[in-house]
Amino acid sequence: MPTELLAETGTIVVLRIAIFFSCRKYVLRSLYSDLQDMSGAESPSRDPLPSPITQTVRESVRKPQGKTEKLYSTLASNIFAGCFSETCLLFLLLMLQGMDVFTSSTRLFNWRLSLFFILTCVLVLIPFFLSFLLTAGPDSPPRPQSPLPRLVLSTISVALYLFALSFIPLPPTLSESDQMTATLSRLVVLGTIILGLLAGFGAVSSSWAFLPSKQTTVIPTEQDIVTAEHALISVRDDLDRRRAEAARRAVQQAESTSWVSRVMPSFRGDEDLQELRGLEALEYQMGRSLDAKRERRSTAKYSNTLRGKLANTGGRLFAAYCLLRFVTSLANVILPHTSASASGTSTPDAAVDMAMRILRLVAPQVQLDDVERTTHHVSLVLVGVIILTSIRLVLQGVTRVLRVTSRNLGASLMLLLVAQLMVIYLLSTIVQLRASFPPAPSTEATGDNLFSTVPEFQVFGALFDWTFLISASGSLAVRWVANKMNGPKEY
């Protein structure tokens, strides 16, 4: 038996390595470069209208990355590829269990090994490197600094994160679980909250443009855009000129020897600072306005094409699904006794349930259990699509809040965040599949069912509905207020 276990585990290791390097190739060629574009420090409106200062910034951003940033990129890519390959292996092991391929002990050993690696990444490695990257300084400082303070700070951050995670209460049914199952349960609770917030935000973001409104969106003409560009260029030129004048006065003040001239220009310096701040605020607002006009113009042109019409039709259907998802979550919260079915899984979305009922009318021979299982799986996929629509906006907002000035550093940070969210979503999906994924007959006799290490989903369904409703309601309120204050459909 040990020889059989070793041979089967060797086959799984080969699959693990193949998935890892396939993901590495995808990360380096596609995802990482896309994240680099998302983490750019410049405003999009500056791309076609570069000022001398902007050109300097863009050239500095596009310089080849240093050794430190290459190390950050390699670490982030390896962690992402490792998390992706191990989560894929978990689903592969579930399929092997359903087909009764390999022995149950081999599947359970590799299942626990992958689960241990994933939990180590999510609970320790990713938080540690996120903290370490957030405290990263320039690539080549004038005086090399010791990384010891950053290492200590990152270690303390991980310890505090694990300490806070240990306070998440476990349901009574999981109080006697082993350490790995208990840790996974606490992580799923945290992940359910995060995914619910992302799903609510994504549902509003993806359907906002298709919601009915009494106000009509004004489509700017090409002349409107050209006029806005000239006005923005004029403001930027004035801003650059005033910056140069302020710098010249500062140099003259530093070279002056008269105490009177040192005191009096300070009043002038305060006036210059206020004028510069006012011009910078004006330039920022004009840039956003120009971006909004360009986007509305481009959207109007695209909507007139065949592909645009098809995309708008799909967007309206998806917006209708998001609305039904909101209604379903509201019904589950108000009537919690209907949120669980006989199989122990959450009730499928109203839209998916309606589609499956129509399918049963067309094909009456379809079994109710098969319909329920299919609706549950489709619901998971659609929720994943909603979450994907929000991740890009969230990542862009994070880089702006953190004021990341390096494309490579920003891409590494976002890649780690994507890995964290990906693992949390896939682990939550595995938990939800527990009641609808049949185990192999051999596991019933040996007790080596892979789902024995996974908590049941009944506890987490209501938590997702609550967080989804809170996030969707808050996002809808914020966008409605912004629409009233800043004009229709600009944000």
Can you count the beta strands?
Answer: 0
Provide the helix percentage.
Answer: over 70%
Largest sheet: none
**Overall geometric form:** globular
Cα gyration radius (Å): 27 Å
Low-confidence stretches: 41-64, 138-143, 338-347
Proportion in β-strands: under 5%
Query: How many domains comprise the coordinates?
Result: 2
The number of distinct helices, counting runs of at least 4 residues, comes to: 14
| H/E element sequence | HHHHHHHHHHHHHH
The mean pLDDT is: 75
Structural class: mainly alpha
Roughly how many Å apart are the termini?
A: 63 Å
Protein name: G protein-coupled receptor 89
Pfam families: ABA_GPCR, GPHR_N
Domain Golgi pH regulator conserved: 180-245
Region (Disordered): 39-62
Plain-language structure description:
This protein has 491 residues and is mainly α. The protein has two domains: 2-138 and 145-215 and 309-486, no CATH class; 222-306. It is 76% helix and 0% strand. It has helices spanning 2-38, 52-61, 67-98, 104-134, 148-165, 179-207, 222-255, 259-303, 306-334, 350-362, 368-402, 407-432, 441-446, 458-486. Helix 3 packs parallel to helix 12, helix 6 (179-207) runs parallel beside helix 14 and helix 10 (350-362) runs antiparallel to helix 11.
